[in-house]
Amino acid sequence: MLISVTVIVALVAVAIIVVIVNRPEPVALPEGVGAARTLSENAHYPEEAGEDAPTLVEFLDFECEACGAFYPYMEDIREQYDGQINYVVRYFPLQGHFNSMNAALAVEAAAQQGEFEGMYRMMFETQAEWGEGQTSEAERFRGYADTLGLDLAAYDQAVANPATQERVEEDFNAGLALDVSGTPTFFLDGEQLELTAPEDLPNALDAALSQ
Asked: By Cβ atoms counted within 10 A, which residue in 60, 95, 140, 180 is the most buried?
């Protein structure tokens, strides 16, 4: 749904301030992390316009307040540039958020049943109800899977499967290799964006499209 320019500017301005103020120091790379890459063969593409289109990658944490503030802004960006850009989401669950990994596991388990975007949207649209808690929200997220009509037995199996967490950690480690230290962090065609104003992202996309 398209939201007003005034609301978008206010939301993203607040989110940018939160990101700048709260971004932690870079984390040392763990052993075994490969070369820095913004994309992977199993990356999730909520928007796909083809290999020749500019590719915007967002590393995010579903419990991150700034990511939640960016969410309606990104929905507007997706509508504004529909069919013109690739938009890729990669997991970067921060250790300081109690349910960030639970949320990422739930989204990845849903993705295995073709509902990545349904669970992605549900996480951000309900973040205010569960974010910043100190108890597991795994059952709540299972309820979201039920609401989306997923096969719950398959969902439970996916959440419990170590391979699902490994998939999440693959994105996280790729982010570390790219010097990602907080969320949201954006890359456009492999180059990290430094967003300091609401117009920075559309300006960067317009420049990429004009090339």
From this structure: 60
